[in-house]
Structures are given as structure tokens and as C-alpha cells.
Amino acid sequence: MTSTNSTEDKTSLCEGLTGYYSVGLHVGAIFLVLFASLAGCALPLITKYVKSLRENPFVFVVGKTLATGVLLSVSCIHLIFEAGEQFHEYCVLPAFQTYNAYEFLFALMAALLMQALDGELAEISERWMHANQASDVVVMQAEGTESHETSEGNNGKGDIADGIDEHHHPSHGDETHGHSHLAVRPPADMGHVRKVISAICMEFGVTFHSIFVGVAVGLTTNTELKPLMVALFFHQLFEGMALGSRLVDAKFGDSLERGLAVMFAVSAPLGMVVSTIAVSVSKDAISGGKFVTTLAILNSFCGGILLYLAFNLLLNDFTADMKTYGARGEGKLKRKIILYVALWTGMLLMALVGKWL
Fold first, then answer.
1. Per the record, where are the segments of Basic and acidic residues compositional bias (predicted)?
2. Residues 357 and 2: beta-carbon distance below 8 Å
3. How far is CA 256 from the centre of its chain?
4. How far apart are the first and last CA of the chain?
5. What's the pLDDT tens digit per position in 163-204?
6. How far is the C-alpha of 276 from the C-alpha of 273, rounded, in Å?
7. Where are the domains of the chain?
8. According to the model, what pLDDT value does residue 139 have?
């Protein structure tokens, strides 16, 4: 964790705390961070319920683009760089002291694992979709055959029989249609499948990252915590906005959407609670080589996950949005500039927060 404080106040995860530690101040910081996390997630989610925002989807696209820039900075500056500092702590396990690029190695491994997972899940979903479509064709053919046979059996029975047959088949079709609604169906649009996968993976990455940040912030003295509270507030606010925009884009059900938002919102406070309780018991409770090494590896992995997601959004969603809003129509140049400004603003704001966090 980067700090501008004096050497005697600066905390090393290799050692216990040496400065003054106020549990009350840390408890207050927990509630502040919880509020920031909830607010960040809520801002994109409320766009679904505000009519003026629903009628102007470009506003949401700007927010989503801002979130892409945020993810780029979080992955590189807040996670991979932070992991590099942790790998260079003097107490890191000896096995990790013989190579100077472990943070990049683990980040690359995570990114490649994400790519493999993304591809496999998309392939499974696509096979599921094709199988479901083939099943629908078979059902339709069977219904057509049954309808034809019934029609032949009723030939010559008069208009009354024909009338009964006409009324019967819609009823039968309705029953079949009802059964198909009870079945679990994959989405017909593979683009939507990828958005769902992206949202779930982002939830995993930012939630675990927030837990680690919370633990680290909980292990700071009062002198360090005061400036960090402001940085962490905006850190969670921007990350929450990034996650919330992906949840909206994935079109989850309301209950699942809110559940995922709450899961992220409580992650950083949970980490702070754990470390605050541990420090209140013993200032050396969470420290040492094993803890630092584990934290460095996990930060590297989360950094790789979020970096993969950020470039996925940049190369796919951002490009698609640019074609939709910046390639045609009146004011296309203005919209294009707005999207670029949003992307760079998100990146720079989160990079600025990295000066303190």
C-alpha cells in the first residue's frame, strides 16, 4: 500500500502495527466504505427505473464506458502494481524471491484462464442453444404430423367435426407451448451470454479485490487511515459503478442483480471487519511472510482477471457502442468525443486514487 506518511507511521505487512490504532475510527470507516460501495452499484441500477434515463440509453453507455476506464486502472495500478510491491517485501517466502516478475506471471496466467473459461462457457451455451432449437424443430414436426393425421381422420365428418378439430389444436398447441415455458431455455443471443459471463467474472474479481483492500486498510494506523478513507471512498464508488453497469447490461433478474450488488458492497467492509477484529486482539495477528505472499498472489490473479475483462469490454462493447452512437446520425462526432472522454476520465480518476490507495 502506497503511503506518503513518515517512515515511523508507515505500515509493513511483514510486521505488526507500530503506530496508534483506534478501533472507533476504523469502525466509522467501515460504514463509510459500505455506503460508497452501495451508492456506486446503485447509480447504474436506477437507470432501469428512471424513465428519462431509459429513453436516453446513451447516458448508460457513457457510464459503462467510464467503468471500462476504471477497470483498466484497477487491474494495472491497484492490483498488479500492488502485487509487485508485495512480492518485493523482505519477508516474502524464499521460493518467491528468485524471480522478479511473479506479479505479471500470475496476472497472465489468470488472464489466459479467463480466456479459456470464457470460451468454454460460450461453447457450452452455444451447444445448449442449438440442441434446444433442434428439439423445438422436432416438436413442431411432431405437432404437424399429428395435425395432418387428425385432419385426415376427420375427413367427411362434416363442418361440426372440422370445427371441433379447429378448436382442439390450438388448445393442444397451448399445452405444448406452456410446457416449453416451464423448461429452462438458454438465451437465443450469444452476445447476451457473453455479457452474463463478463458480469459474473467481474463480480468475482472486484469482490475479492475489495476484500483484500478492506483487509489492508484495516491494518493501517490512524495517521495512514485518514487520507486513505477518502481514497477508498472513491475507489469503492467507481468500482461499484463499473460492476453495476455490467449487471444492468447482463439483464439479470431483479433479485439476483440486487444480491450481486450487495455481495460486492459488503466485501470491503467485511475485509476491514476481519482485520480490525484481528488487530484489536493482537497487532501482529495478520502479518508475516505467508500472509504477504498469499496476498500478492491473489492480487496478481485478480489483476489478470480484471485486465482481461477490461480489454474485452474495450475491444467489444466500446467498439460496438462507438459504431452505434459515433458512426452515424446527427451529433455523431460529439457522441464519439464524449465516449472517448468518458473512457479516459474513468482511467485517470482511478489512477489518481491509486496515489493514496
1. 164-178
2. yes
3. 13
4. 6
5. 444 444 444 444 444 444 434 444 555 567 777 877 888 888
6. 5
7. 23-128+187-355
8. 61
